[in-house]
Request: fold
Amino acid sequence: MPKIKMTTPLVEMDGDEMTRILWKRIKEILIEPYVALKTEYYDLGLPERDRTQDCVTEESALATKKYGVAVKCATITPNAQRMTEYNLHQMWKSPNGTIRRILDGTVFRAPILCKGIKSYIPGWEQPIVLARHAYGDVYNNVEEQANKGEKVYLVIENEKGEQVRRSLVHDFSAGAGVVQGVHNCDDSIRSFAHSCFRYALEQNIPLYFATKDTISKTYDRRFKDIFAEVYESDYQKAFEEKGLEYLYTLIDDAVARIVRSKGGVLWACKNYDGDVMSDMVATAYGSLGMMSSVLVSPDGKYEYEAAHGTVTRHYYKYRAGEQTSTNSVATIFAWTGALKKRGELDGNEELVSFAERLERATVTTIEEGEMTGDLISLYFREGISPKKLNSEEFLYAIAKRL
Ligand code: NAP
Ligand code: MG
Reply:
């Protein structure tokens, strides 16, 4: 069988630890036998980031801007313990943070569903995709302690440095306390809105967006208004043609609706709501190994990855020569997501179809009872007793069906 050809390279960002081991084997066992894989390779493994003073991370993000589609392996974000473990020159920043800063995107996280793997919320039959605005609010805040007797004001200056507005936040004459200043920018909110509307249209799913604008009448209201403007000017017609709903509501109402829903929606969240709710949604669907993630920039660049980390505990076992049973599904779906998108952009139907077949083979493997250890206790299907495979056996079980 001739291999499927690619015209434009994918940006390939290699990573660390157990996911780096899986990365190589996924390519060898599931992709390279069928696709004449064309990638521009960047090694984001920690030793190479350290050697290049982290330039390699920036270069890989710029390459994503150039080519439009990237696939990324999980990477270590260094902390004090990693400084000694890897003998690092510096505590390099999170690669995901760097890539997000350069691409200025929104992160969409979606669970991968298989028959037999039960959600903790039984009504959730379809994926709930969560979009998190990754700029501002409490993540870029200024905060202070206030002493008894102090007054705290919100002061606004014009370009010349003259005070134009001032409002009292609180008079602490009765006792000490704390204050916090947060901000967001219209441009960032607008590009978040565009990313969400575009993603919902592409995936053919309704969009919910929620804030607390009854309480935050200026700040959260701005989010609501910008979403409404963007919707009316650019997307309403397309939503109506497809019969899709855009629903704006209050965050507490959104939570209630989501819990009662069957899934099958895109839920756009402000930064903090997204931080909290994405972990709730991921956990409710079962395993971290079944959650995929894509960063979409406002100008339509895509970076696909698994939502989990480098699975360090399994890597230490692997290095000690022990068997591991690490779930590679989210990493496989990062590859298929990227190959599909590359295929769509290049009009390469064979590539799109291959990616879809690989996804189906992966899901079918689990549905037919062959899976990694993390899924065993979640699996129930009449007449099938689940079989635990090691990391590599699982890939071969998929290859057999592919
Ligand atoms: P993690 O790698 O996601 O793993 C946490 C635990 O979740 C694992 O120990 C394992 O539980 C389970 N798990 C996660 N993925 C799994 C999979 N594919 N198959 C089976 N089990 C899975 O998070 P972490 O241990 O907090 O972080 C490890 C490293 O990853 C850190 O250096 C961190 O900086 C990095 N990280 C990177 C990214 C990214 O690149 N996007 C994201 C998060 C973390 P059991 O041990 O119980 O089996
Ligand atoms: Mg969180």
